[in-house]
Specification:
InterPro entries: TusA-like, TusA-like_sf. By secondary structure, the protein is an alpha+beta fold. 29% of the residues lie in helices and 35% in strands. It contains 2 helices and 4 strands, in the order βαβαββ. A 4-stranded mixed beta sheet has the order 1-2-4-3, covered by helices on one side. The longest helix has 11 residues.
């Protein structure tokens, strides 16, 4: 999946992945995609809920070798 912007949030504990994601998505235009990589287990629920509450669309979420990867389309 082709992302407009990439955010490396690996090694960051809650709430930093969300804080960084908010800042990054604000730099995008509606319809553009933010790819986020995080290692905090809580980020799975946090980023899913944040995307929904912010009017964004979680296109895909997967886990690979302890890294949670998210693709969020800006609403």
């Amino acid at each position: 999946m082709e992302a407009t912007k990439f955010l490396d949030a690996k090694g960051l504990a809650c709430p930093m992945p969300i804080v960084r994601a908010k800042k990054a998505i604000n730099e995008l235009k509606s319809g553009q995609i933010l790819e986020i990589h995080a290692t905090d287990k809580g980020s799975k629920n946090d980023l899913t809920a944040w995307a929904k509450s912010g009017g964004h669309e979680l296109l895909k979420a997967e886990e690979e070798n302890g890294v949670f990867k998210f693709w969020i389309k800006k609403g």
